[in-house]
User: Which sequence fits this backbone?
């Protein structure tokens, strides 16, 4: 007599997770969790001594893509901070799949080309991934592309000193460094694409 035990999971498995990878078409089978992929060290760099609060989190999937989003904000209002850093950090991760459930690298490459041609866009490498950086009104948006994974990080912050009634935007170099560190965290969590 043979006893079979079935274990049920609350995780949703999509066709892309069980479909075999095609040779020469490396990619990711799932999207990392955006909230869990960012280290405490990176969050402290982004927000200083004031711990941020997750204000939005979303993790969803369809046949052609999987998404994970996390938004952190400095807890409270600027008037409650007194002195310190007040900011917002958005991470949005997407893995793309074709109609057969295989990694859709072509769509990701097209998105990279479109972003790369925007005015004032600069190019970087983040853990071996291609990245495009753009600045807009005291914020930075870094979008990294690796295989069928897109990592979009948007970060803005000001230094607040209510004793001197000042809000000083962080320098672009600091915004860039934080966005780079956050993207590196996510890409390290994702690991290398599977062949």
Assistant:
């Amino acid at each position: 007599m043979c006893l079979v035990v079935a274990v049920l999971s609350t995780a949703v498995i999509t066709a892309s997770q069980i479909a075999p990878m095609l040779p020469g078409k490396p990619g990711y089978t799932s999207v990392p969790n955006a909230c869990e992929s960012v280290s405490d060290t990176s969050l402290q760099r982004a927000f200083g001594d004031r711990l941020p609060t997750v204000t939005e989190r979303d993790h969803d999937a369809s046949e052609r893509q999987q998404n994970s989003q996390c938004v952190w904000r400095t807890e409270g209002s600027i008037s409650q901070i007194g002195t310190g850093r007040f900011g917002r950090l958005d991470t949005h991760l997407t893995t793309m799949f074709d109609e057969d459930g295989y990694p859709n690298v072509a769509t990701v490459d097209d998105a990279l080309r479109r972003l790369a041609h925007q005015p004032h866009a600069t190019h970087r490498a983040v853990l071996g991934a291609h990245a495009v950086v753009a600045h807009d009104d005291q914020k930075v948006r870094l979008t990294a592309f690796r295989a069928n994974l897109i990592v979009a990080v948007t970060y803005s912050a000001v230094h607040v000193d209510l004793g001197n009634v000042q809000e000083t935007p962080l320098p672009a170099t600091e915004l860039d460094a934080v966005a780079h560190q956050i993207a590196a965290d996510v890409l390290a969590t994702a690991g290398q694409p599977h062949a």
About this structure: DSSP finds five helices and eight strands in the chain.
